[in-house]
Design goal:
The structure holds two protein chains of two kinds. Chain A is mostly helical. Chain A folds into two domains: 51-166, Serine Threonine Protein Phosphatase 5, Tetratricopeptide repeat, CATH 1.25.40; 168-279, Serine Threonine Protein Phosphatase 5, Tetratricopeptide repeat (Alpha Horseshoe). Chain A is 62% helix and 0% strand. Chain A has 13 helices and no strands. Chain A has helices at residues 3-26, 29-38, 67-70, 78-91, 95-107, 136-145, 150-163, 170-184, 188-207, 213-219, 226-239, 242-256, 265-278. In chain A, helix 6 (136-145) packs antiparallel against helix 7 and helix 11 (226-239) runs antiparallel to helix 12 (242-256). Chain A is elongated and about 115 Å long. Chain B is an alpha+beta fold. Chain B folds into three domains: 63-196, no CATH class; 308-429, no CATH class; 432-709, no CATH class. In chain B, the strands form eleven sheets. In chain B, strands 14, 16, 17, 20, 27 and 28 form a six-stranded mixed β-sheet that branches. The radius of gyration of chain B is 27 Å and the shape is globular. The chains are: A mainly alpha, B alpha+beta.
């Protein structure tokens, strides 16, 4: 190739490179990012750039995110352990693994060791040190411990109520745990004591969803919380308080009037029980 | 030597110009030199693009979405709470931001967001009717006026739903219904903006507007560069020239590529609600000066697609499946594919199959009758999961006498149903598959056993998607013994009265019934002589919020209880902070005030500050839901007069779809009704409308199995 041609070729290559680089450098970073996206080059997902990894503000995301979407290899904080625990519990049915992760999570978000706090004032800043206490991980661990370690379950449920006293279904689960403990208790006095605690917890649940003249007007429901009334009736029967049991079965029937039940045969059974208890 | 020089010149031209071309559409195209052209009615395109016109007209995107009672009701409810902040302001506005700076640009016209009120102004319209919002800058072409007063000066009694402004008389002058929200005046015709998303919205697009999207990525917030010009972009690299000078067909490869890509749809199919943002997922505008613009993710569909398997080759089809491949193709009417997802064999409709046709009408659309090629074209049905909550007569009174019947039973030349209701049903039928394979095989009477429903979404995004906090998909599960004795049910509906909206007795229909996991009534608010923005008198909080007998969604997520309703619906939540009133009273009539943060589902997006977008089904990820079921004891059965259960137990699972929950519609009915903040009925939603038009799409997927009774 002649010297002049070689020079032309070098000039040409330089021109192409310069033009391309100039154009790219004129783009702002987000345009470059978009250009990369358009060519299908995706940057690796990290906690920082992942829309499926929420940034607390100041509360942690209370809910379950499919674990693989979070981009977490090894959990590093209380929330990440909680999320892995949920994955193990719900997706793998690895309950022991879930319990272990929930315990680790709570150890890192603990009222006892000062790694979390109860939020009592408003407005809340976007970051809090220590961060707010989480309720989901405690509820989930407590539920898994209801049979294995009822005392620990009740303690955790009560922590949930410290975090959010208005949270529904927690008092009911405390009542259920006490009732089961009562069933398993050996002596009659302890049974009575535990059943009485169950009654108190169930009543606490009902007090969070009061039936008022206004609510009757709006819904047509003269009672609600069918399952709580069903369980209360059961406990009253065990306590030998038949009038109370009958009354609870009656409220159960009122609560299911428009809503039926997941176990619909209980509706007919409640009617029979009322007949039996009335005799 | 001559050859070498020629090669050099050609190569220099080709390569040298390439980067220049690449600059324009990939980033932010800023100035355009095309001959401008006013925003066109779709009828202007009709002579040459009859097929596209007819298809688009029967989609909810064009027409219905702007007159939808639900859209109008939701926008109204949000304005009641925000004091009219969602209505547009224009460059001639004298309004101020809360900081006291001029507020004279809206969600579509603001170049860079620096405060929340800019993004709030015209928030809904920016995607529902972007051109109309933009051309409102000119008072002569303005359809939706600025409100006289906002915040403390807001007048809910004078407020009109947006659709009131979409009517004109025979001369093209705007006419308003006599009563705010009232029926269209006799002889009224649809305005330029009535049709919403029309030909020009998409084919005027120049590229993404990264400054407009909060993550500078072209997602959400109508982050599009729109320019009304004669240069229309289509899908073809070598378009045929149009007849006369009505328009030219763009041959800009990057502009074409953008229109053909999912990136184009991303601009509106993520919706990020500006305001206080999320208290559990902090996000703000990343653009210059945007840090005060906090928001949360309402519609997250585009992100779901972009991060999901269909925006990769890691899916059963081995290629990127774009929005257009399902919503603008022959899907789901072009045959099936069979493939494996995990250990499940799935058969479902094949995406990405397009009809072959002319892109324009031969003999009409080209000069000198230049021959048009037949090539692969897209359909413009843009089928989705919505059907109008309006009757045909109401639709036609607002959108023209030729507005198509959503329940039309005819088909087009490809066999695609003309009626959008049938297309919606068929699309839903392609969305999900379930099985019961992992259920326990035997159970001992009186003991517990596990039913496991494995559900797999086949959609490009999560399912359901879009306004996924209200779009409702649920699993109905029943367990019976061989004699039909019903042991367990979940996902069931019961017929009951709805006193708040005047249904005092059950009406014999289940389509207007909520699921039994929750019993809720939302505060509609009330009219007051002096308006005060915020939650006080403007509704949105729950007056009733009780757990129902089929409590499942909250119990499953927050407590991990494997019982109760599987509700594949995302959730909007209000985190009430210490000192906040929940808006209802206790048994003694005393206001219930949160002493600690309290998370509670809300049905008004305007007051949500936490959203869970992970309750819907993730695409191509089989997800198993366990139901722990207790069989009745022998004693209980004896009391009931049942000798014993007859095995095997019959398990049936069904997936149903409901496009909006009745509780949400009843809230909109009340808050826009006579007792709501306006003080008079805005004629948007009522019980009759709910009963007439809300329909469940049942059995979009089903599965059966049996479980043996052991001893």
């Amino acid at each position: 190739m002649k010297k002049r041609n070689r020079l032309l070729l070098i000039l040409f290559v330089m021109f192409v490179l310069a033009a391309g680089l100039t154009a790219f450098s004129r783009m702002r970073p987000q345009e470059q990012q978009s250009a990369s996206a358009a060519t299908g080059q995706q940057s690796p997902v990290t906690r920082e750039n992942n829309p499926n990894y929420p940034t607390p503000n100041p509360f942690y995301f209370e809910g379950k995110i499919p674990y693989e979407l979070t981009g977490i290899d090894t959990p590093q904080n209380a929330w990440e352990y909680a999320e892995r625990g949920m994955y193990k519990q719900d997706d793998l049915e690895d309950l022991d693994g879930a319990i272990a992760d929930y315990r680790t999570s709570i150890s890192m978000n603990s009222l006892q060791n000062g790694t979390c706090q109860l939020v009592t004032t408003s407005p809340v800043p976007s970051t809090m040190s220590p961060p707010p206490c989480m309720f989901t991980v405690r509820s989930r661990l407590a539920y898994l411990l209801m049979e294995r370690d009822p005392a620990a379950a009740i303690s955790l449920f009560q922590e949930v109520l410290q975090i959010d006293p208005l949270r529904l279904e927690i008092n009911s689960l405390i009542g259920e745990t006490y009732a089961e403990e009562g069933d398993n208790a050996k002596d009659q006095a302890t049974k009575q004591q535990l059943y009485q605690k169950a009654v108190e917890a169930f009543k606490a649940e009902l007090s969070l969803s009061p039936v008022t003249p206004q609510s009757v007007q709006m819904t047509g429901d003269e009672a609600n919380n069918a399952d709580v009334h069903w369980q209360l009736a059961d406990v009253y029967e065990k306590l030998g308080q038949n009038a109370n049991a009958k009354s609870e079965f009656d409220l159960y029937l009122k609560a299911t009037k428009w809503h039926s039940d997941t176990y619909p045969w209980r509706i007919a059974l409640a009617g029979k029980k009322i007949e039996e208890l009335g005799q | 030597m001559r050859m070498l020089r020629l090669t050099f010149v050609v190569a220099a031209l080709v390569f040298g110009l390439r980067p220049l071309a690449a600059q324009t559409p990939v980033g932010n195209p800023s100035s355009f030199s095309f001959k401008s052209q006013p925003y066109q009615r779709p009828e202007s395109c009709l002579p040459c693009h009859q097929r596209q016109f007819t298809e688009l007209r029967s989609s909810v995107k064009s027409g219905y979405r702007n007159v939808s009672p639900l859209f109008n009701g939701l926008e109204t409810a949000a304005n009641f709470i925000s004091g009219g902040r969602l209505r547009p302001v224009y460059k001639d506005s004298t309004k101020l931001t809360p900081a006291g700076t001029p507020l004279n640009s809206n969600n579509a016209s603001t170049s860079l967001f620096t405060n929340i009120t800019q993004a709030q102004a015209g928030f809904c319209q920016s995607c529902h009717n972007p051109h109309i919002l933009l051309q409102g800058e000119n008072p002569q072409t303005r359809e939706v006026p600025e409100l006289d007063g906002v915040v403390n000066d807001f007048r809910p009694d004078l407020f009109r739903p947006l659709r009131d402004y979409s009517l004109v008389d025979a001369s093209g002058h705007q006419i308003l219904p006599t009563d705010p929200g009232g029926p269209a005046p006799p002889g009224a015709k649809p305005s330029l903006g009535a049709a919403g998303i029309t030909c020009d919205v998409c084919h005027n697009v120049m590229g993404p507007n990264l400054d407009h999207s909060f993550q500078a990525d072209g997602f959400a917030n109508m982050s599009l560069k729109l320019f009304n010009s004669i240069s229309k972009v289509g899908p073809f690299l070598f378009p045929v020239a149009a007849k006369g000078d009505f328009h030219v067909a763009s041959s800009d490869p990057q502009r074409i590529a953008f229109l053909r890509s999912g990136n184009f749809c991303n601009a509106c199919h993520d919706v990020r609600v500006v305001g206080g943002g999320s208290l559990t997922a902090f996000e703000t505008d990343k653009n210059t000066g945007g840090s005060p613009v906090t928001h949360y993710r309402l519609e997250n569909l585009s992100t779901e697609w972009a991060r999901g398997p269909y925006n990769s080759t890691n899916n059963p089809f081995g290629k990127v499946v774009r929005c257009q491949d399902c919503h603008m193709s022959l899907f789901p009417y072009a045959g099936n594919s069979t493939y494996m997802v995990g250990d499940q064999q799935i058969t479902s409709p094949t995406p990405s199959i397009f009809p072959t046709n002319f892109a324009a009408v031969p003999g009409v659309s080209t000069d000198f009758n230049f021959a048009l090629p037949k090539r692969q074209v897209v359909t413009h049905y843009l089928s989705g999961v919505d059907v109008p909550l309006l009757g045909v007569d109401e639709l036609r009174s607002r959108l023209g006498n030729d507005y198509p019947d959503p329940y039309d039973t005819s088909s087009d030349e490809y066999g695609t149903p003309a009626g959008l209701a049938q297309r919606r049903a068929d699309l839903l039928g392609a969305a999900v598959r379930i099985n019961l394979d992992k259920s326990d095989k035997t159970v001992v009477p009186g003991q517990k056993f596990n039913v496991r429903v494995t559900a797999t979404a086949l959609t490009g995004h999560r399912f359901p998607a879009g306004f996924s906090q209200e779009r409702t998909t649920f699993i109905e599960l029943s367990v019976r013994d061989r004699n039909g004795f019903l042991i367990y049910q979940s996902g069931y509906q019961t017929d009951k009265p709805h006193p708040t909206t005047g249904e005092t007795q059950p009406d014999g229909s289940l389509d207007d019934e909520d699921l039994e996991h929750l019993i809720a009534v939302v505060d509609p608010g009330k009219h007051t002589d002096t308006y005060v923005p915020g939650l006080g008198n403007n509704g949105g909080r729950n007056l009733i919020f009780w757990s129902g007998p089929d409590s499942g969604p909250e119990a499953r997520v927050y407590i991990g209880i494997p019982k109760g309703l599987v509700l594949l619906r995302n959730e909007l939540t209000r985190v009430f902070l210490p000192g906040d009133s929940l808006g209802r009273t206790d048994a003694n009539g005393k206001d219930i005030v949160a002493t600690k943060p309290h998370f509670e589902e809300t049905f008004n997006a305007a007051i949500a500050n936490h959203v869970d977008n992970f309750r819907s089904l993730q695409p191509l990820r089989p997800t198993t839901f366990r139901y722990e079921i207790q069989l009745p004891s022998t004693a209980d059965l004896a009391t009931l007069g049942v000798n014993q259960l007859a095995g095997p137990l019959q398990i049936t699972a069904k997936v149903h779809y409901e496009h909006f929950p009745p509780v949400f519609l009843r809230y909109l009915s009340q808050t826009t009704g006579g007792l709501g903040p306006a003080g008079h009925d805005l004629h948007l939603v009522d019980e009759s409308r709910i009963d007439s038009f809300l329909r469940n799409n049942r059995n979009i997927a089903t599965a059966n199995t049996t479980v043996d009774l052991g001893r």
